[in-house]
Design a protein that fits this description.
The complex is a heterodimer. Chain A is mainly beta. Chain A has two helices and ten strands; from the N terminus they run E-E-H-E-E-E-E-E-E-E-E-H. In chain A, a hairpin with a 6-residue loop joins strand 7 and strand 8. Chain B has one domain. In chain B, the strands form two sheets. In chain B, strands 8-7-6-9-10 form a five-stranded antiparallel sheet, with no helix packed on it. In chain B, strands 4-3-5 form a three-stranded antiparallel sheet, with helices on one face. Chain B starts with 8 loop residues before the first strand and ends in a 7-residue tail after the last strand. Classes of the chains: A mainly beta, B mainly beta. Strand 2 of chain A pairs antiparallel with strand 1 of chain B, so a sheet runs across the interface.
């Protein structure tokens, strides 16, 4: 027991923080999408074979395997296809709980992406709800999804289930 | 950057993990905070350092804690020519497997030898602990091993 110190507290927990530094390159197609966000617009890409519009586009159609060269500007409006209410606090949480994360299908798009739903109580969010994007102020826009503050209800009638069931 | 270029961004992920260490590893880290190194005795009499939580041969609970070191023998090593940002030493050092006196297994740590010419397999080293006030129950409370004088380094 040489060197033992009196009064040392038993160690029960070890902090093991992990810090990962990446240099991220989104590629050509997602760079188009991100540059659109920096201008406050949603840019997707259309498949020349099946006509489906992907946002964010990966640069090729996953069904037809062809390049999606045509850039399509999409509106700020769409619908909630599905959602989850976050009730659990976690480190780094930026939004007050409970809040809602939803898959948002923009009008004219054939794939949904995730967005925050605000300006409505979490327990009133529903599938088929019409929403619109709320952008950050113009001087805060950047090539990031952080340019979209959140989506909020438009107050329009809900979409029919049949209109979006293939996107669930 | 022109519109023809792809975007590039720095992307950082931080996971602020904390794990509970349990009775065996807890004893190991507690000992380090006291400037000691402990292993456990396995069912075949081997002294395993760092301690495993279960006997590697039988899967049963391990036996008694055993004090080992602070001296030991380097069984293998390689030289870190330039320390990385996350390394705790700010100058070149050796990664080494050190079999502590009284231990059967070797543990991975570093040898602060100054120069690769001072390193040799089979050399004797001894533990250098951080000052008590800087210890936090972490494997780096044992800051490094250092060559013993006339310990067989080149």
């Amino acid at each position: 027991m040489s060197g033992a110190e009196a009064g040392t507290q038993p160690v029960t927990v070890l902090e093991t923080p992990i810090h990962l530094d990446y240099v991220f390159t989104p590629g050509i197609a997602q760079s188009i999408f991100l540059r659109g966000l920096a201008r406050g617009v949603f840019l997707g890409q259309r498949c020349p074979t099946c006509g489906k519009v992907y946002i964010p586009s990966r640069g090729s159609c996953p069904v037809d395997g062809v390049a999606t060269d045509e850039v399509v500007e999409l509106p700020d409006t769409g619908i909630v296809t599905t959602y989850c209410v976050v009730n659990v606090p976690f480190a780094g949480q930026a939004v007050e709980i409970p809040y809602t994360c939803a898959q948002v299908l923009l009008d004219g798009a054939n794939i949904s992406f995730m967005g925050l739903i605000q300006e409505v109580p979490a327990d009133q969010v529903r599938m088929g709800m019409r929403v619109e994007a709320v952008w950050v102020p113009p001087d805060e826009l950047g090539p990031s999804l952080a340019s979209v503050k959140y989506f909020r209800p438009t107050g329009e009638p809900d979409a029919l289930y049949e209109s979006y069931e293939e996107y669930l | 950057m022109s519109d023809g270029d792809v975007l590039v961004a720095n992307h950082v992920l931080d996971y602020p993990y904390a794990r509970s260490v349990g009775p065996v590893l807890g004893a190991f880290f507690t000992a380090l905070s006291e400037g000691r190194i402990v292993g456990v005795e396995g069912s075949d009499g081997a002294v395993i350092v760092p301690p495993t939580e279960y006997d590697p041969l039988t899967g049963e609970d391990v036996g008694e804690l055993r004090d080992v070191g602070p001296g030991g023998v380097v069984t293998a090593w390689s030289w870190q020519v330039a320390p990385g940002r996350k390394h705790h030493l700010d100058h070149p050092f050796a990664w080494a497997l050190v079999r502590l006196d009284g231990a059967t297994t070797a543990m991975l740590h570093v040898v602060d030898a100054g120069d690769p010419g001072a390193m040799a397999t089979g050399m004797r080293v001894t533990a250098r602990f951080r000052p008590p006030a800087e210890r936090r129950g972490h494997v780096l409370d044992l800051e490094a091993f250092v060559p013993e004088p006339d310990g067989g380094g080149r």
